[in-house]
Amino acid sequence: MSRILPLTLIVSLTMSSNALATENADTILTNAKIYGYEEANTIAIHDGNIVFVGNGADAKPYRNQSTEIIDLEHAYVMPGFIDNHNHVFEAASEAGGNCELSMDASLEGQIPYLQACSRSSKSKGWLMGYGFSLDAILNETNTQTPLEVIDGVFPDRPVVIMEQTSHSMWVNSVAMELAGITKDSPEPQGGKILKDPFTGELNGILFDNAGDIVMEMAWNSLEGQFNQSYDGLMAGLEESAAYGITTIGDGRLYWKRGWYEVWKQVEKDGNLTARVSLRPWVYPADSMEPQLAFLKTIQTSDTSGLLLVDQVKMYSDGITINGTAKTLAPYLDTYIPDEPYGINYIPPSEMKTWLDALDKIGYSAHIHAIGDGAVRESLNAVEHTRRNGSTKPYTLTHVELVDPKDVNRFATLDVTADFQVGSEYVVEHDHSWAKLFLGAKRAQALMNLKAIFDTGANLTLSSDWNVHELNPLVGIANSIRMGNTGLPDVKSAIDAYTINAAKSLGIQEITGSIEVGKSADFAILDRDITRLSPDDIADTEILMTVLQGDIVFDAEE
C-alpha cells in the first residue's frame, strides 16, 4: 500500500539527492497534487528520471534557462498505470479482419452478417472476422450446424471467425481442408475439434489451440501483413497512452506471425509510447527445443530500453464457457463431454520442465490459469521451479476459480495473481452464466480478489483488452465496487495497477511509484481519485500521459 510521506522527509530525501545532482532538470512539473505525498507540488525530471519531488521553492537548484516548466494547474499526478495483461498488438488492429458478426444473433440470424462480409470482401483468399456468441450458434434448437450455415455463404474461400474471447473459432470447410482437419484428425494439444453429436461430422467450431492453428494460417496469408500489423499496433499504443498507461505486459506475442519484428521496427522508429514486456507465446503443439532456441535469441532484461523480453506467455487451460478451463471437479454441462474436467494446453509435467528450461535462459512466465485445476497445476509447477532455485517473478493471470486449499500458496510461493474486473457482471458478482457449467456453489466462488489479497500475496489488475475495458480507472473503480469479493480501498486498487504490476514484471526498481531515481512515468488526472466515489473514479479524465519524461498523450491536443 502506498505511503504518505511528510514534507520534512521529502525535503531530506531531495536534499540528499541534490547533493549528488550535477545536472539541471530538463522538465519541471509544478503546481500539482502528487499521489503519495502530503504537501509536495513539484517534480523535476532529468534524462527521463525523477530527480526531485517536493516543494517548488526547493526545486530551484534544478532549474536553468533551458528547463521546461509545466504548470499543471492543480492536476493530480499519479504513477503511470501498468496494464499487466493487454493485447495491445491486435486489439485495435484491422489486420484481424473487418468482418464483424453480431454478439446477439442466433445461428441463422448471423446469415445476413456473413453475407455482408462476403459482399464487402471480393478477395478469394482468407477472410478473417470476429464476434459471435458460442451458445447461440451451438444452440440445441438449431436446424443446421454452424458448418452448414457458413459453407452456404462461403463455399469457395477459407473463412475463420473469432469469438470475442479468442478461445473459439467458427470456420468453413475450405479452411479446415487447408488446415488438414477432418473428422478423423487427432486433436492438437490444447485444442478441440467439435463434431455433431448425432452424425459425428465436423460442425465448424474449433476450440482453443485447434482454432489458433487455423487463425495463424490465415494471418500469415495477409497481403501487406507487416504494414497492417504495424498500423494496428500504433493504434493500440495510441489508445493505451490516452488512458494513462505507460507500461504494458503484452498479453501474447505470436512470434510465428512476425509480430516480434513489428515491435522491433516500432522501437527502431522511436514510436513506442509505452514500456512493453513482450511475452512470446509458448506453442503447445510444437516441440520444446526449437522454441527454446528461438526464445534464447530474443531474450533481454535490459531495462534501459522500452522493450523487455524476459517472460513468456503460456496457457495452462482454456476458458469456462467452452468447458476447456481445467477444473478439479467435473463440469455439470459441457460442449466437450469427452473432457469432463476441461483440457490442458501445457500438461502439468511438461509445465515443470518448461519452467526449468526457461529459467536457465533468463525467462519467467505469465501463465493463463482460469479453472481451479489449472491454478493448482500451475502453482505446483512454480513450486517445483522454486525448489530448483528460481527467484524470478511468476504470475498466474485470470485465476477465476481458486480452490480454498490453494489460496495461501500465492503468497507462500511469491506468485502474483492477476485479475481483470472491467466488466459489469464481475462487479455485480453475477456469474449466473457459469451455474450451468459449474453449479451454483462454484459459480459463486468465481473472481474472489479479497481472498487472495488478504493473504498478502502480490495482486495486480489488468485489462485483457479488448476482452474487457481498457481504462485502468474502470478497473480500479470496479475492484472497489465488488464489495466483499473485491479490494478494500482505492489505494490498494491503485497499487494493483502500478507498483504491484511493476513487481509482477520485475521492474519495481525503475517504475510503478513516484520516487527519486525512478523513471518519470506519470498519469496526470483532472481529479484526486483517492477522494472520489468509485463511480466518479471511473469517469475521471486523463489529462496527460508521461513516459520517461516525454509527453506521449495530451488531452488538449
How is this structure best summarized?
The protein is α/β, with parallel strands linked by helices.
Polypeptide structure, described:
It contains 21 helices and 24 strands. By secondary structure, it is α/β, with parallel strands linked by helices. The strands form five sheets. Strands 8-9-10-11-13-12 form a six-stranded mixed beta sheet, sandwiched between helices. Strand 23 and strand 24 (550-554) form a beta hairpin. The two termini are 34 Å apart.
Give me the secondary-structure topology:
Elements lengths: L6 H14 L6 E4 L2 E2 L7 E5 L2 E6 L13 E4 L4 E4 L1 E6 L1 H4 L7 E2 L10 H10 L6 E4 L3 H4 L8 H8 L5 E4 L5 E4 L1 H6 L12 E5 L6 E7 H11 L5 H17 L3 E6 L8 H10 L6 E3 L10 H11 L8 E2 L2 E5 L32 H13 L3 E6 L2 H16 L6 E5 L10 H4 L2 E5 L4 H4 L4 H7 L1 H5 L4 H5 L5 E3 L10 H10 L8 H7 L2 H7 L16 E4 L8 H5 L3 E6 L2 E5 L3
Parallel strand pairs: 1-5, 2-6, 7-14, 8-9, 9-10, 14-15, 15-16, 17-18, 18-19, 19-20, 20-21
Antiparallel strand pairs: 1-3, 3-4, 6-22, 10-11, 11-13, 12-13, 22-23, 23-24
Helix pairs in contact: 8-9, 11-12, 18-19
Beta strand count: 24
| Percentage of residues in helical conformation | 25-40%
Query: Per the principal axes of the C-alpha atoms, what is the gross shape?
Result: globular
Biggest sheet: strands, sense, closure? 6 strands, mixed
The end-to-end distance, rounded to whole angstroms, is 34 Å
Give the DSSP E fraction (strand runs of 2 or more residues).
Answer: 15-25%
Average of pLDDT:
94
Low-confidence stretches: 1-22
Q: What is the number of helical segments per DSSP (H or I, 4+ residues)?
A: 21
The assigned structural class equals alpha/beta
As a whole number of angstroms, the C-alpha radius of gyration is 24 Å
Instruction: Characterize the quaternary organization of these chains.
Output: single chain
Q: In order across it, which strands form the biggest sheet?
A: 8-9-10-11-13-12
